[in-house]
Specification:
CATH superfamily of the largest domain: FAD/NAD(P)-binding domain
CATH architecture of the largest domain: 3-Layer(bba) Sandwich
Number of domains: 2
Helix content: 25-40%
Number of strands: 22
Number of helices: 9
Largest sheet: 8 strands, mixed
Oligomer: single chain
Distance between the termini: 41 Å
Radius of gyration: 21 Å
């Protein structure tokens, strides 16, 4: 039924993939992007994608996302795949945390992720000889995890929406709301008023500001600045070894992955206050202490040395050549909000991904379609014949299960 209209606010990965899913289900869709497609966090993400999560439902949801991205090559204009399956390697140096990781692997096997392994001793170091033998006691590895080319996802996703008859409008910020009887029926933009049966907030780190414009519930999503640094390969590690390296997470949460054959990407979360009123330009504003140009006492050089303690060949790399940054839209329990607004009818929030928006994109779109078809919050979605519980993403939940595997 093409007479059902949906407006999606935000032209990042969440917005365009949800619009695509709704268009395939027969909805007339319009995406409204304040700047240009991918202008927000989607173009600044480390873009990791993993199935090694700490609840069975999220494991199944991420298995769906990996399968989606593998198949998405059939929808891109030149057949290029957006996913690189180099794997994820979580490393541990604490016996208690290592025991917990081994239990998670058993749970993940039960959720269908049969290829994930718990490795220790020679099994670990023979497989990954660049890991320091004195630095860790074990690791979990899933070869079907990896990372994405996010520009392919949002650009090809937007192209696919248009191909399906939808509209993707850029430079169209939402400036006001039209409501009737406590329900959102239209949004105002410089390009006109857009009416619909259902509206989706896909703004993530911008959601508090959109909520103020719409007069709806303001969710606890804090925009937190996050940095990435890029190291030039030199020394004993070959270009082929770097290119094949899995996304590797050290015991401290410091992580790295290959950007290409000659460049290693590195990142780590840090304590920082929320920046609720940040601008688009602020996304790329690098604080001096986090710049690779800040000298040997700066944060990136300290992290480089920390990384080299766990992965010794990295010590011989040629230097840090670039710094980039952006914002995580972070919730109290690091799980997103996927559900209907409790104060304003006709509005669904898909926000608060805490750095996982790119990898969760296909799963989020699937949940969003279920919400749209039901007209209310749903307890589960069906994936591969299993009912996957989505109540941990509902608005108004108790924050009693924080996602433990956050980087």
């Amino acid at each position: 039924m093409a007479d059902r209209k949906a407006v999606l606010v935000g032209g990042g990965i969440t917005g365009v993939l949800t619009a695509r899913e709704l268009a395939l289900a027969g909805w007339d869709v319009t995406v409204l992007e304040a700047e240009h497609v991918g202008a927000g966090s989607s173009s600044r993400t480390a873009a990791g994608i993993r199935q090694q999560f700490s609840t069975p439902g999220t494991v199944r949801g991420m298995r769906y996302s990996v399968g989606f991205y593998k198949d998405f090559a059939r929808e891109t204009e030149d057949g290029q795949s957006p996913i690189v399956q180099n794997g994820y390697l979580f490393l541990y140096d604490d016996p208690k945390q290592w025991a917990g990781a081994q239990r998670r692997v058993e749970m993940q096997h039960g959720a269908g992720l049969v290829e994930v392994e718990a490795l220790e001793g020679d099994a670990l170091f023979d497989r990954f000889p660049w890991v320091g033998r004195d630095a860790v006691i074990g690791g979990t590895h899933c070869p079907t995890d990896g990372f994405l080319h996010p520009h392919l996802v949002y650009n090809e996703g937007a192209r696919r929406v248009r191909e399906l008859g939808g509209r993707v409008l850029q430079n169209a910020p939402v400036t006001g709301a039209v409501t009737e009887g406590g329900r959102l029926v239209g949004v105002k933009t410089p390009k006109g008023v857009f009416e619909a049966d259902l509206f989706f907030d896909c703004t993530n780190a911008w959601t508090r500001r959109l909520s103020r414009v719409l007069g709806c519930e303001e969710l606890p999503v804090d925009p937190l600045k996050r940095y990435l640094w890029f190291l030039q390969r030199e020394g004993a590690m070959t270009a082929a070894e770097l290119q094949a390296m899995p996304l590797t997470i050290c015991p401290s949460g410091l992580y790295c992955r290959p950007e290409n054959r000659e460049t290693l990407q590195m990142g780590k979360k840090h304590d920082t206050p929320p920046q609720v009123d940040f601008t688009y330009d602020d996304q790329d504003l690098i604080e001096p202490e986090f710049s690779h140009k800040g000298g040997l006492d700066g944060v990136p050089f300290e992290l480089w040395m920390e990384l080299a303690e766990v992965l010794p060949p990295i010590a011989d790399f040629g230097g840090i050549q670039a710094t980039t940054c952006g914002y995580y839209g972070t919730t109290p329990d690091h799980n997103p909000f996927l559900g209907y607004d409790r104060a304003l009818g006709g509005l669904v929030h898909l926000v608060g991904f805490s750095g996982h928006g790119a990898m969760l994109g296909p799963f989020t779109a699937l949940v969003a379609k279920s919400l749209a078809e039901a007209g209310q919050d749903v307890p589960s979605v069906v994936i591969d014949g299993f009912d996957v519980d989505v109540t941990c993403f509902r608005i108004g939940r108790e924050y009693d299960h924080s996602e433990q595997m956050v980087i």
